[in-house]
Amino acid sequence: MAGEDDFDLTVAHKHFSAWCFNRAWELVEKPERTEAEDRLMEALSHASIFHWISRPDCTDKNLAVGYWQASRVQALIGNAQEAIRHARTCLGYSTDLEPFHLGYAYEALARAAGLMNDAANSTAYLDRAESLAEQVPDERDRQLLAADLAQLRSDVADAFGKLRE
């Protein structure tokens, strides 16, 4: 049996921070998931954050992206309180980042507020995210954020329209 000295924990954290994030993302993008897949998606997202925190090269950007994904996962499984909690954590790590990442922090807040049926905050967060999207210098990143925000705005409008009916 190999001793602990034969195991490079830093290499493991580097591998699993990305592997868990990517595997969770595959489940995020899956149109239909089982309950077991939802639990796996949630665990993978949290595991990714754990492995990032354990890396000596971890940055605020890494954690902002990790907590953004965690918020998205919680929104997908319908856990509004955890979605907003992770979105707020994402925002905390994003405040000094470029508009792309800060915009996605507000996207997460808008999504979570929408899930909580908070139309006023959801709309305000979307407005802030759209303003930040306009400041993203990279065309591809700007279009990606803008498209996600347009889809979210449509989803939120549909959801609040159904609430009014």
Task: Please give the structural blueprint.
Elements: H1 9-29, H2 35-53, H3 60-76, H4 80-94, H5 99-115, H6 119-133, H7 139-164
Helix pairs in contact: 1-2, 1-3, 2-3, 3-4, 3-5, 4-5, 5-6, 5-7, 6-7
Radius of gyration: 17 Å
Summed up, the helix count is 7
| CATH superfamily annotation of the largest domain | Tetratricopeptide repeat domain
Do you know the CATH architecture of the largest domain? Alpha Horseshoe
Number of individual domains: 2
Number of strands: 0
Q: Could you name the CATH topology of the largest domain? A: Serine Threonine Protein Phosphatase 5, Tetratricopeptide repeat
CATH class of the largest domain: Mainly Alpha
Distance between the termini: 65 Å
Sheet with the most strands, sense and barrel status: none
Mean of residue pLDDT values: 93
Helix share, percent: over 70%
Shape: globular
Pattern of helices and strands: HHHHHHH
Features:
165 residues, mainly alpha, Serine Threonine Protein Phosphatase 5, Tetratricopeptide repeat, 2 domains, 79% helix, globular
Could you explain the architecture of this structure?
The chain has 165 residues and is an all-alpha fold. The protein has 2 domains: 1-58, no CATH class; 60-165, Serine Threonine Protein Phosphatase 5, Tetratricopeptide repeat. The chain is 79% helix and 0% strand. The chain is built from 7 helices and no strands. The chain has helices spanning 9-29, 35-53, 60-76, 80-94, 99-115, 119-133, 139-164. The radius of gyration is 17 Å and the shape is globular.
